[in-house]
Amino acid sequence: MKRIKIKHVLSSDGKELIGQRITVKGWVRAFRSNRFIQINDGSCLANIQAVIDFEKYDGDIIKQITTAAAVSVSGLLIASIGSEQSLELQVEEIEILGAAHPDDVQKTILQPKKHSLELLREQAHLRFRTNTFSAVFRIRHAVAYAIHHYFHSNGFFYLHTPIITGSDAEGAGEMFRVSTLDPKSPPLNEAGEVDYKQDFFGKPVNLTVSGQLEAELAALALGQVYTFGPTFRAENSNTSRHLAEFWMIEPEVAFNDLTDNMDLTEDFLKYLCSFVVENCKEDLSFLNLREQQEQSQKPLNERNELSLVERLTFVIENPFKRLTYSEAIEVLLNSNHHKKKKFQYPIAWGIDLQSEHERYLVEKEFKCPVILSNYPAEIKAFYMRQNDDNKTVAAMDVLFPGIGEIVGGSQREERYDVLLEKCKAFKIPEEELWWYLQTRKLGTVPHAGFGLGFERMIMFVTGMTNIRDVIPFPRTPLNASF
Ligand code: ATP
Ligand code: MN
User: Fold this and answer.
1) Are 383 and 419 in contact (CB under 8 A)?
2) Measured between alpha carbons, how far is 155 from 445 in angstroms, rounded to an integer?
3) pLDDT digits (tens, 9 = 90+) for 404-451
4) CB-side exposure of 326: number of CA atoms within 13 Å?
5) pLDDT digits (tens, 9 = 90+) for 146-202
6) Closest Cα to atom 4, ligand 1: which residue?
7) Contact 168, 210 (CB under 8 A)
């Protein structure tokens, strides 16, 4: 018989199946009283309960109905008399598709008890089978889908920018070199340095840190494009918000200025939050409850003021606070927090804001998402548009509660002469970026874009507090398992 997914059986459409013989396939989550089998097939969070009359079956089969075993079950779907579920399956046929011996299960996180997130990370190959991670990864999928949906419905084109890049001009952190040279004895040139002319591409190349420069080229023809791909940064920051391999979404729009860019970001982030609220109800309420349970273990002053669902609703319903970098510095300098010397890092115009400063603005001062704009030129990338004050650039960062920076963007420098000067000031050789510079001489227009860190967004919508727990197989310093 054709397999029916548990999500369908348990949905309102599944009611039509009551009184029919159906087959479900999945993994046993629990087997109680030699009678009630909880089966999960990953299509949704909930299990279906199958009820087996063990006296009718061979003891060998019953013994193999263990936690983690894969089974195929056929039988009559009936309305349940139990209070925990509305439907149940009366087992007529059961097949063990893949046994899971209790001794083997014991060694893993599949044994049914509460495990720490750290232990689950060490067994990332199995953590998909837990409620928490199945919920996180179903939501991750939903957000990826929502991103494409948003841009497609707004007339953007999905652009695939290269993963291997020959330019390291972006300057967004350290890069990973890609090479086919023999690391033990690479060919050397006359100066005794590694001769990259003999490497695969005839020059040094790296994994990309951003698709932005290429996206700009396409935006200057297609009007509005976005990238959504893997990004690599060899920054040695072992934080709960950084990965060496993460996914980034980078829209780029011709004719947009900085205000248009902020409007787009805000609308986009709100859309993603409402998509999750509307389409991931079951998983979201599970994660909401999970967070509440975790919070109840913490001291009162460390607890979140709002629950996960309340935070999402808050972002959807309230305008983001917009202020300039200079205004933010004033706010910080005038804060009691600063006067009581509670900030670890100094505050002065020109500094790169530390995470403690960003979190203060978002969580204590404004209590809502914040868009900071017009940063000092020295602390931002060369391609950001110079403002008339000659001190600041048209940059913007979006700061989220609990996360810090979630989006970084800017209006781009479209004026050839100014851009050339910036390249010089940043010591970027013209030969390396000739193609980028040339677009500024061939019908250049104002344009703007931003980068959203996909995993940081998933942290926000799932309430997970470590970025390693929202990507299937995290890559961080000294860790590339699985
Ligand atoms: P941060 O200051 O947090 O290190 P950044 O300013 O270096 O970030 P950008 O170059 O502006 O980051 O990248 C755009 C977005 O990509 C960031 O706002 C963030 O959401 C995400 N991002 C950047 N670096 C990482 C990383 N190592 N791991 C995960 N996400 C990242
Ligand atoms: Mn940034």
Assistant:
1) yes
2) 19
3) 999 999 999 999 999 999 999 999 988 889 999 999 999 999 999 999
4) 8
5) 999 999 999 999 999 999 998 766 655 689 999 999 999 999 999 999 999 999 999
6) 242
7) no
Ligand 2 centre distance from Cα of residue 310 (Å): 27
Q: Give the type of residue at 420.
A: L
List, for residues 193-207, the tens digit of each pLDDT value: 999 999 999 999 999
The tokens of 196 are what? 């990259």
Place of tokens 């046929």: 93
Query: How much is the pTM?
Result: 0.96
- Confirm if 150 and 228 have CB atoms less than 8 A apart: no
Burial class of residue 64 (count of CB atoms within 10 Å of its CB; 0-12, 13-18, 19+): middle
What ligand has the least distance to the C-alpha of 171?
Answer: 1
Atom of ligand 1 nearest to the CA of 409: 11
H helices of 256-341, in order, are: 258-279, 281-296, 308-317, 325-334, 336-339
Classify residue 83 by burial, with Cβ atoms within 10 Å: 0-12, 13-18, 19+: exposed
Task: Name the nearest CA neighbour of 455 among 283, 247, 302, 276.
Answer: 247
Q: Which pLDDT band, with edges at 50, 70 and 90, does 236 fall under?
A: confident
CA of 453 to the centre of ligand 1 (A): 6
